[in-house]
Amino acid sequence: MTVSILPIPLGIGQNIGVSAKSAKSANSATSVKRDSLSVGLATGVAGLAFGAVAVADHFSVLQACVLSLVLFSGASQFSLVGVMSSGGSALSAIITGAFLGSRNGLYGVRMAGILKLSGWRKAVAAQITIDESTGLAISRKDEEEQRTAFWYTGFGVYIFWNLFTLVGAMSAKAIGNTSAWGLDVVSPAIFCAVLVPRIFGADGSSKRGGRTLYAALLAFVWALSVTEWVPAGTPIITSVVIAVLLGWRA
Amino acid sequence: MSSQWIAVLTTSLLCFAIKFIGHSIPESLLAKPRIDRITTLIPIVLLSSLIAMQTLTEKTVRVFDHRIAGIVFALLALRAKAPLPIIVIGAMVTSAIFYRVRI
User: Structure pTM?
Assistant: First the structure.
């Protein structure tokens, strides 16, 4: 019996609404693959937005594509671009991006027990270990289906995310004013989509006795309170202290 | 090298390393209640402070503008369990409308 270190490892995948539903119905390999493909397509829209936002925030098309190819973790990519375009230093962008990416490390711990890989296959699996691939994999009961869901979702999202990043980055050059096209809310809207399922359960109640909601509200107020007094980027990094303080005691 | 490239390459390599290390360490190493509680809360506080900054500040100054409307739409759509593309596109359209009518 493995100890779960991931209470609810769901990000964007949960909001697509396919995982939980189909886990109960016919568990055929086809339905696993279909779910994976639709998640890949849906995240493509976010990839399109990422490419456009990155270029609108004065990153080059090549930099946007390198982020999607090598970093390949939506929240970290959006945070990196956001922190730097608001005047934050490279260091604060790196720290924020890496801290946000740390949850993929936890997913990796969980997936390694299911995939049982070594060598280059482990490296490939590591690269596609993200919210979506892990979320869809562990929503399945059968180990074979978990592996299928992981690979299909991981590769599906990887291909669509990168393809659409390129398209978004290229087309952003035609967009003059990003506010007039709503591009300035893409990144916070996606953060909301990743954050809300981590705070509220399916029944609408706050997880872990309200601790998650409390942490989110404190971090929100903290960042807004100090922003005018400290360098750009630091309101975000320093909110990690709130996580440590609130998580310290049971 | 520009600071943008430094950030892009360093974060990319760090994030891959984090994923790879995750695949390489025993599960028992992280299965401690305190570590579990803190690692659950880290993405929550980061996402929340990022949302605050990207919705309610311009550079580092607090501002209240059209973006609030977009995020309110996103939260309502999330509450209605809308799929991700609807959340993102709806938030963009809402924010753009409020921007264009100068509210």
Answer: 0.84
